[in-house]
Amino acid sequence: MILPLRITKKDDVPRRQMAAVLVVSIGLALFFSGVVMLFFGLNPIQVFGTIVQGAFGTAMRLEQTMIKAVPLTIASLGILVAFKMKFWNIGGEGQIMMGAFAASWVALYHQGLPAGAMLPLMALASIAAGGVWALIPAIFKAKMGTNETIFTLMMNYIAIKFVMYLQYGPWKDPASQGFPKIPKFPDAALLPDVGGMHAGWVLMLALTGLVFLFMNFTKKGYEIAVVGESLDTARYAGMNIPAIIMTAMFISGGLCGLVGFVQASAIEKTLTWGLSSNYGFTAIITTWLARLNAVTTLFVCLAFAVLLQGADYIQLALHVPAAVAQVVQGIILFFVLGSDFFLRYRVKWIGLARARKEAVQ
Amino acid sequence: MEAFLAAAIVAAMPLLFATLGELLTEKSGSLNLGVEGMMLIGAVIGFITAYGTGSPGAALLGAFGAGAAGALIFAVVTVTLRGNQVVTGLTLTIFGSGFASFVGDPLIGKSVPKTVQAFFAPAPVPGLSEVPFIGPVFFRQDAFVYLGYALVVLISIYLYKTRPGLNMRAIGESTAAADASGVAIDFHKYAHILFGGGLCGLGGAYLALVYVPMWQADVVTGRGWIAVALVIFASWNPAKAFAGSFLFGALSILGFRLQSMGFHISQYLVDMFPYIATIAIVIISTHKNRKEDLPPADLSVPYFREER
Hints:
The structure holds two protein chains of two kinds. Chain A is mainly alpha-helical. Chain A has a domain of 237 residues. Chain A contains 14 helices and four strands. In chain A, the strands form two sheets. Chain A has a two-stranded antiparallel ribbon with strand order 1-4. Chain A has a two-stranded antiparallel sheet with strand order 2-3. In chain A, strand 2 and strand 3 form a beta hairpin. The longest helix of chain A has 30 residues. The radius of gyration of chain A is 23 Å and the shape is globular. In chain A, 49% of the residues are buried. Chain B is an all-alpha fold. Chain B has one domain: ABC transporter involved in vitamin B12 uptake, BtuC (Orthogonal Bundle), CATH 1.10.3470. Chain B is 70% helix and 0% strand. Chain B has 14 helices and no strands. The longest helix of chain B has 27 residues. Chain B is globular and about 60 Å long. At the A-B interface, strand 1, helix 6, helix 11 and helix 13 of A face helix 3, helix 4, helix 11, helix 13 and helix 14 of B.
């Protein structure tokens, strides 16, 4: 099929144009989401309006928005480190679960610890568990070239089934009268409030800075980027590729594991199998939208937290399923993925007659 | 044993349809990781259509169309706009699961209408169903299962014995060479991505209409991903895809069997079996290096004529 267009590759794109294309594509995505809502009998203006109200309307809702931004940002930073290496870590959910499991093991089985030791130990345990959970597929990838996409995804299901097993089996609270619940954490294991909300936001900001510095100003961070860019270049430069893959994945899984600690300690106050709340998957979208830049990731995650919290609110206010947020997220990313084309290529209308002539040549 | 294997065939069907769909997509050079999403979209649209019309034909058509529509998004973004295939496929999965919970919300707990249930009742094949062992396992099934058998045969013939099948394999192996010999690249890619998506939609619909004849939003639970692994396991061969689906169908109902036989083992640990087995398959497949076991050479390599 011949189109009346000529498509040529662009060399460099000015920042302003990149921003313009991004804004236009997100605008189009929101418009299209509105059309989808109309189709299903919803008033898109009312839905979007209620989402904004639900995210900012009261101090409590704003706090809920921030509470969602914290795990999403930290998980996204973790995914970023892996994606930068073109290692498709879609096992964030499982790494969050295993981090939460390890933190809970510390909290529940070492009850005598003072808060000063308890919280750091829980955090370290969660990083180690999430990191090791991510390291398993990384070792196979590094040593044998095993496909990491399916591997990391399957590890999610195993982790979730494992926590279900604990919740319905050996860790079930005997005092809960048969109700499948794991006992609440002791007070020393609960993340304290700092400035009106739980201390996770401090972690979120600190880690954003740390990951930004790590990826842009350290040798390891640079090596990760090179491995992602071109394995041949990395090999030629004499880099130890398996070691880089394993280090990066340990960091990636460790950050996701830390999310498990924050959610178990500050939100659930125990371990539950639903604790990861899709953050591991949503992080894939936010990280990609942020073009794998840590600081941009923070802002994208804040925006997505608005969408998530707003969606929870419309479920209460309008009885619209919160899954509508997932639909909107998907549509936004489709548009942004598609819009990249207009950054990479110049499309020119040349008319059918000329296109035919050029096709023959 | 016969009853167990017959049940394994039923459990295998969603996997088989999705695996064949992804196989066609990959053979034509595209890696669509949105299988799980397309199955969910097909499941919810198939269920809604069945619920609304009571017509099994309309439900299957709707599911096929819905899966293909999901695949169309993937095709536009990756073939025409040359977006990243991995991320686009992942997005399709996230979008599909959101779409299924959003659209299916009013239907939670509703059951499949009687007319549709009747259509999917087992219909023994005269003659064949009387063959000892083979008959009860393979030929006392429902119409959808027979459609699955037919697809395995038809797709094998298409791939290895027909001109269009040869053309599409050429695209997957070397897009540039196929282009030079005059094969319409974009048309073939679109056609196979869409048809593949339709098959994934059918697989999802079978889950919602027959396997769990009641609507629940998490009906697919990773089967789409298992299908992606099964394509590798099957070395991109439809007959082996059938064998792999059968094996995984058996694995997915094994836990239930073990429990009913009196083994005391946690349901949740048993539920891990198929996922662990999938990982095992992915690891084993890494070691394949016979030529006919390798993936299409140009799989997931973006192609742009002007960039050669």
